[in-house]
Amino acid sequence: MSVLLIAEHNNKELRPFTYNAVSAASKIDEELHILVLGNKSEAVAKSASEIPNVKKVIHVDSEIYENFIAENYTSAIIKHADAYSHIVCSANTFGKNLMPRIAALLDTSQVSDIIKVISADTFLRPIYAGNAFATVKSSDKKKCVTIRPTSFEPAPATGGSAEIVKSDAGEAFKNSKFVKREEIKSDRPELGTARIVISGGRGMQNSENFKLISAIADKLNAAIGASRAAVDAGYITNDHQVGQTGKVVVPDLYIAVGISGAIQHLAGMKESKIIVAINKDGEAPIFSVADYGLEADLFEALPQFLEELNKLNTIQK
Amino acid sequence: MKILVAVKRVIDYNVQVRVKEDGTGVVTDNVKMSTNPPDDNAVEEAVKIKESGKAKEIVAITIGEEKAQETVRKALAVGADRGIHVKVDGVVEPLAVSKILQKIVDKEKPDLVFMGKQAIDDDCNQTGQMLAALLSWPQATFASKINVKESSLEVTREVDEGLETIEVNIPAIVTCDLRLNEPRYASLPNIMKAKKKPLEQINASDLGVDTKARIEQIKVEEPPKRKAGIKVANVTELVQKLKNEAKVI
Q: Which of A70, A226, B59, B105 has its CA 20 to 30 A from that of B237?
């Protein structure tokens, strides 16, 4: 048995969730190899080789991988798949887009979004927006698995020195073309990995009011999240959405402001260690998952919250 | 241009799902069912494209038990022209669904196939990508904007980092995000008219697709419950609790 992990990166460095996926993958089997498909991505391959859990890095460098188009990735991955019992990657938009394309060509029924490795063929995964956990056993010879990164600790980044093997690019797929990427640059921590997340919902009423949230985020070095309602209403961009169809976050502290707590939102945050809910509707479902609930008008509570934080001598960052 | 739209019948998104006591699944008896929400967006987008004159025909398809055809009827009521119901009982995994869809695509020869990006029951997020692979077609997943051009689509995709735009040549698969559009409601006269629109039934077994499960569901359980929290009286108490009790700030 051996596991092939498809690295997620930006051609310069591994994306943080790759380290979480490494942890999960090495729980499946210790013979873990990483496949890096990129363009001018030597630094990525090198970082991958430094992860102690990784036994080998396969590095394929070609222009066709510049923008991580799944259709281009597929042929290269299929070429290497023969040697492995498991093909795995993170269950974020990168892996969700890619893995089923691999699985179908390998005639494998994919196991999506696992939160626990029970054995090499049995996994725990959430279904129905996390309202149920299913233990599933794959009978396919070759297994394609995507990993919910926030359910696994990141693997250490250094200490290893795996061999890096160069390999040839696969065929380019002619019918898909990358046009552009609108990345939202921010100095704040990434939503997926932040220790503290403060999220706003429909109760924020407009995008201007999100300043109340960002002021607190700055103070706490927190990432900013949002409910789908807030994103749909145009208060904030889609990359902030937490929930069943957005991001799943598991911070130490999650502060939900003006969010009622629809099932779909809870799916993305209810595993957080400490949950705070600030909402003027005392009956809002968000209070059922909150460790600390504050029934208050957010427009009064948020400025007070900032003021109280300013009074503290020290804040953990 | 012809658009095939796939819709799935799932437990309604507003239902608080309950796990069966025997651990075999979730309670579905007497539970409200409806179309998987992003599949509604897929139907809506197809209808909008047809209304703009760029598509001639919309075929709605569902795969599942007898009652699954309700979802096709709903698609017909908002503008699809005809329906296909592939009958199969029990759970059909995305791989088998995509193989069934491949057979239908071979027969119907659509230019585009639309569906939701994920079903809210099994949360797999696989079918569109699998179908694209089987057909060797391009895949535009998690679409929040579609611009139909002469022989291609320009699609804005919702990705973790923000938005990505790709161009895919037709024929192509698009999986739809909830933000793609605002699905319309069917009017009563259109619901009545939809009953007269053609709906073809096909048995999955007649398509020669093996729908046997490859993944055994060993058990389904409730997720661990959070311990009950408290209500704090004011912001001062909240900050004090976070600092001294939870020790998170």
A: A226
